[in-house]
Amino acid sequence: MVPLPARRALLAALLGPAGRRRLPRHHAPAAARPSSGAGERPEAEGPSRATAMLRHLLLKLRATGPVTVAEYMREALTNPGQGYYTRRGGIGESGDFVTSPEISQVFGELIGIWYISEWIATGKPKAFQLVELGPGRGTLTDDILRVFNQLASLLSKCDVSVHLVEVSPKLSEIQALMLTGGKVQSNPEDKSAYMKGISKTGIPIFWYRDIQDVPPGYSFYLAHEFFDALPIHKFQRTEKGWREVLVDIDPEVPDQLRFVLSPSSTPVTENFIQPEETRDHVEVCPEAGVIIQRLACRIEKDGGAALVADYGHDGTKTDTFRGFQNHKLHDVLRAPGTADLTADVDFSYLRKMTQGRTATLGPIKQWEFLKNMGIDLRLQVLLQNSRDTATHEQLLHSYDMLMNPKKMGDCFNFFALLPHHRLVRPDKKQKPESKSPLPPVAGFGELLLK
């Protein structure tokens, strides 16, 4: 967080009507995904459809036997031919789920302020990369870039670029249309970025398939509803010890799938279950651990910060694996490839996987983070500038969706990775009284506007 006068200036830059995103709809946003499938049953459906993905999986299972839940998720979500994200990726009201940036422009604006705040707090480096993992439809990046454009005078001497990590060809097309108006070109001469373009505000944008392809350098990383879609392994405690949950063909219904337990302990089980574990059911996402390690290494070496916003818990929940189709809970084993599959993020695991390379903050609830960032002030300004009753009502409804603990306020958490020196001043040979206080980190401490 920057000093209060400067922070007021950042917020004030957004207070005019010019900062208003053109509303994509004229009715209330659809409901967000429920936070957990535990104890909830998907609505009853008709006979199972033998989707192309299901036929593919049935052939695979007959040939190899049961697969891990992680392998099942990977196939159902990102199979090149029939995966959910590669084929459709149903974000928005017409899709299978809606995200916070789709609900309100304020969400992205405040995250944009967070990055500017950290940039100022670390001495205004001459360049930074905004790197978003799994950018969805590009709405969040679009809102952040609008903030950067409104603060153009502040960023005038800074070289800003955007780097999007996206595996879905369909979604990358949607992102390109949203961010550049469709003015992009394939990038065959560069083996890392597969597409590039210029934003509507003149900022270069690059697309990659893997975080490792993004160039090194001072970067701000963003992962909003990214980690919850990564493949998980599921483990169950039994009388004979821990066993991994697998997916297999149901022998009584040959075109349907079922969960089974591995007959014995496996190396994976022994590697991922800690001796002190007290839960009877545990979900582990190794891919999330690898990505967090890479982010931590980059931040330790090049500086910057990472902000993670997602469904999650701090090592307390058990069975959270669930599916969504048409904004309703969906049986995770039915019609694979046609529904979003997700599981809550274990932030205690992410913290552990940084291996001490960076400092971590959070997780804290979404309502608390947004309140600390000044969402109430921003809402009041938008309400004052709204000319019609419908817009007024939508702003209030969107605010309630984001902040109400019974809706998205408590479901989502914010978690940050920062260089250690950002929170603890290096021990140098200088008089303690000569050290100026480190500015607090925006969002993770209370903002007092008097």
From TrEMBL:
<protein>
    <recommendedName>
        <fullName>Protein arginine methyltransferase NDUFAF7</fullName>
        <ecNumber>2.1.1.320</ecNumber>
    </recommendedName>
</protein>
<dbReference type="GO" id="GO:0032259">
    <property type="term" value="P:methylation"/>
</dbReference>
<dbReference type="InterPro" id="IPR003788">
    <property type="entry name" value="NDUFAF7"/>
</dbReference>
<keyword id="KW-0808">Transferase</keyword>
<comment type="function">
    <text>Arginine methyltransferase involved in the assembly or stability of mitochondrial NADH:ubiquinone oxidoreductase complex (complex I). Acts by mediating symmetric dimethylation of 'Arg-118' of NDUFS2 after it assembles into the complex I, stabilizing the early intermediate complex.</text>
</comment>
<feature type="compositionally biased region" description="Low complexity">
    <location>
        <begin position="29"/>
        <end position="39"/>
    </location>
</feature>
<dbReference type="Pfam" id="PF02636">
    <property type="entry name" value="Methyltransf_28"/>
</dbReference>
<dbReference type="GO" id="GO:0032981">
    <property type="term" value="P:mitochondrial respiratory chain complex I assembly"/>
</dbReference>
<dbReference type="GO" id="GO:0035243">
    <property type="term" value="F:protein-arginine omega-N symmetric methyltransferase activity"/>
</dbReference>
<dbReference type="GO" id="GO:0005739">
    <property type="term" value="C:mitochondrion"/>
</dbReference>
<feature type="region of interest" description="Disordered">
    <location>
        <begin position="23"/>
        <end position="47"/>
    </location>
</feature>
<feature type="region of interest" description="Disordered">
    <location>
        <begin position="426"/>
        <end position="450"/>
    </location>
</feature>
<comment type="similarity">
    <text>Belongs to the NDUFAF7 family.</text>
</comment>
<dbReference type="InterPro" id="IPR038375">
    <property type="entry name" value="NDUFAF7_sf"/>
</dbReference>
<keyword id="KW-0489">Methyltransferase</keyword>
<keyword id="KW-0496">Mitochondrion</keyword>
<keyword id="KW-0809">Transit peptide</keyword>
<dbReference type="InterPro" id="IPR029063">
    <property type="entry name" value="SAM-dependent_MTases_sf"/>
</dbReference>
